[in-house]
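For reproducibility, we list the full input for the phenylalanine complex.
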Amino acid sequence: MLSKKLQDIQNQAQKEINEATTLEALYQVKVRFLGKQGELTLIMKDMGGLSKEERPAFGKLVNEVKQAVTTLHDEKESQLARVEMDKKLSEEELDLTLPGPYLPNGSEHLIAKVMNEIVDILARVGFSVRTGPLIETDFYNFTALNIPADHPSRDMQDTFYIDGEHVLRTHTSPIQIRTMQTEKPPIRILAPGGVFRHDYDASHSPHFHQIEALLVDKNVSMADLKGTISYFIREFFGKNIKTRFRPSFFPFTEPSAEVDCSCPLCQGKGCKMCKHTGWIEIGGSGLVHPNVFKAAGLDPEEWQGFAFGFGIERMAIIKYGVSDIRLFMENDTRFLEQFK
Ligand code: PHE
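The corresponding predicted structure, in tokenized form, follows.
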């Protein structure tokens, strides 16, 4: 009687498992036959009608049927899971040929671009980049560079003082001292970066950029300085651009010279950019002053050197024809993207 019922349940379970076409339907079958209130659980309760001797054998039989139904269910379950996964994968396929969302490209800032151009040109003759802090001590920005306490460039008009001891650096020359203190000659370094002066109009910005070059070696002369700068200007502005050195004064160089290049816009004939002189000033230069070597701990009897410092905005303005220095700080994308 009971084993007939068990047989029927097994047949029914097998049939329903075979017929289930979704995981959800299969789960319902599992609950109906194998769950806590399932038919194969409840049938155990019917054992009350069996004799003591018959019970163990029947219990064993029920367990075997449960096991068989479970195995069948599990096989079907993994088969259906595969089918459902395949279906999902094919429905949700990504079309990689669709155009993506539009992301506008940024562009390198003209100051960064010009800095990199300058570094590349001077790297070819052995110079490598060093950097220093924007907030400098009075010592590095002035004293060590042979700038005495009463020198006009220390005036509150030009220098942003942070406190009695610290300034926003007014030039990149402090990196000369920092490098000579920490590295042994021969030295060939470039120091590009931001500098600050109290000045603001169409051709002056309170925050602008310079690039400093320092070479320290034995038997360095003005000829080395002039050769290096002339090479650099030809490479940067073009082969037919001439370089001119005008005697000048800087506390940290002796002799000192201001560097002009023939106007790339009018080729030296005279125009608005060069104020009709045919020449444009781009920076200062000279041989390292003995006092600067002493302040940095080098013996001026043993070492010579040259240094120059050029204004990056100036060079960008000349090479790329920018009309107003303030454009560099405004971050107007219509300006910036012209130099992609
Ligand atoms: N530091 C000088 C300036 O800012 C430029 C300079 C650098 C001159 C190196 C001579 C040598 O004007």
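The first strand starts at residue 128 and ends at 129. Strands lie at 128-129, 135-137, 166-168, 187-196, 207-217, 243-250, 253-262, 279-288, 304-311. Both points were considered when choosing residues for closer inspection.
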